[in-house]
């Protein structure tokens, strides 16, 4: 039996056997000083505030044995997958591929490209390096999810209006139902987070659903729910 999640704009029926938790780009590049996010002129401390809520959801999700997906925004060391239109945009203090305090900015394998330790992937979880903003563009994610019968995605991560919203829209176009946990996502620009939550849920949930993580956790932790584990 699905979990009945009190979400906006209306209830979300979560079937854990066919759902994945998708954690977007919780990597040092965005959350810690010295990475890509700060190079663009942002205050990265805003993003650190969501980490405890993300950890709580990840632990609950793992406890029920449901699928977890981690993404990283990452480019190949030769930057062959980084278009000029992305690298040469604006006037950042460091461009993608430049050497920063945590290694080369947004390059796969560099210290800054690692997911923060408290959310680090464990064995059995899917890890996706993505060169774009969306988790599906130029990655095997759709095929991996389909092969496991996944039809619903619960989203956390950063930033709300850039990689999270892009991934939710890509997922929606591919037929997935998406639920965004509003206290587990953040933007460098506060108004953009709220705007994204509104855009996702407007027009009858044109992109998907939104709810606070405690609402999800309360349903997941109900004793009878343990039987739903994959
Ligand atoms: N700049 C910004 O807000 N975000 C990104 O560049 N990437 C992600 O959102 N992951």
Plain-language structure description:
The structure is a single chain. The protein is of the alpha/beta class and 230 residues long. The chain is built from nine helices and ten strands. The strands form three sheets. It has a six-stranded parallel β-sheet with strand order 7-4-3-8-9-10, sandwiched between helices. The protein has a two-stranded antiparallel sheet with strand order 1-2. A two-stranded antiparallel ribbon has the order 5-6. The radius of gyration is 17 Å and the shape is globular. The chain binds tricarbonodiimidic diamide. The site of tricarbonodiimidic diamide (TIU) has 9 residues, from helix 7.
Chemical compounds bound to the protein: tricarbonodiimidic diamide
| H/E element order | EEEHHHHEHEEEHEHEHEH
- Mean pLDDT across the residues is 96
Radius of gyration: 17 Å
